[in-house]
Design a protein that fits this description.
Elements: H1 17-35, H2 42-60, H3 75-100
Helix pairs in contact: 1-2, 2-3
Length: about 100
């Protein structure tokens, strides 16, 4: 697949990453839909979303043709690392807070 009439025209064959992302986000949707009834704080599910979406974007960027920015990673990958970290912190903080609250 190529994008001769794209924003940055190219005739080089590239992976259809938007299709891959759509499939990955549908899988993330299914996971989140299954977890919606779990007895957790409201922000817990958002933290899980941030972890999954960040991981998806990080992995997709390996097959895109963006130039590396730092440590061999693209700008989107670096942002994705931050999103995954923020999601993990959210989930962990809510887990600690839940343990402290009496049942």
């Amino acid at each position: 697949m190529s994008y001769p009439k794209g924003v940055i025209p190219t005739t080089a064959r590239v992976h259809p990453t938007p299709v891959y992302e759509m499939i990955a986000f549908f899988a993330i949707f299914l996971v989140l839909w299954r977890l919606r009834g779990v007895d957790r704080p409201p922000w817990w599910l958002f933290g899980i979303y941030m972890i999954l979406a960040g991981a998806e974007r990080f992995l997709i960027e390996f097959i895109r043709t963006n130039a590396p920015l730092w440590l061999g990673l693209t700008e989107a990958q670096l942002v994705s690392v931050g999103v995954v970290a923020a999601g993990a912190i959210t989930v962990l903080l809510l887990k600690k807070r839940r343990k402290r609250t009496p049942a």
